[in-house]
Amino acid sequence: MKRTRRKFTPQDKAAIVREHLIEKVPISDLCDKHGLKPTLFYRWQKEMLENLAALFERQGGSQTATLKRENEALRQRLLDKDQVIARIMEDFVAVKKTLGGA
To answer: 78 partner at 20 to 30 Å CA-CA among 25, 32, 33, 63?
Structure first.
């Protein structure tokens, strides 16, 4: 009989590893409960521990700087648009005066 491969979400993987680390459930019990091979569990645990440092990296500063740059670019575009509209209005008023409409 052919077995289908199960897919675990990142949340499932984290919950299983957390169950071992926090609740001190033995790995053999976890593997039996979730139908895992111990090597797969150890791979998830290693991956989690290797990526743990990423949680402590400062990401807010770069995001704030990006938003500030984007905000400044949008302000500049708005200023350029206002200047173009002002020039068009000047031309419109001048044409209207020459035609005697004002």
So the answer is: 63
What does DSSP assign to residue 68? H
| 27 neighbors 38 (Cβ within 8 angstroms) | yes
Q: How many whole angstroms separate alpha carbon 42 and alpha carbon 92?
A: 74
pLDDT in tens, 42-83: 999 999 988 888 777 766 567 778 888 899 999 999 999 999
Handedness of CA 29, 34, 39, 41 (dihedral sign): negative
Report the predicted TM-score, pTM, of the whole model to 2 decimal places.
0.53
Q: How far from each other are the two terminal CA atoms of the chain, in whole angstroms?
A: 90
Taking the C-alpha atoms of residue 9 and residue 21, their distance in angstroms, rounded to an integer, is 19
Could you list the beta-strand ranges (E) of the chain. Answer: none
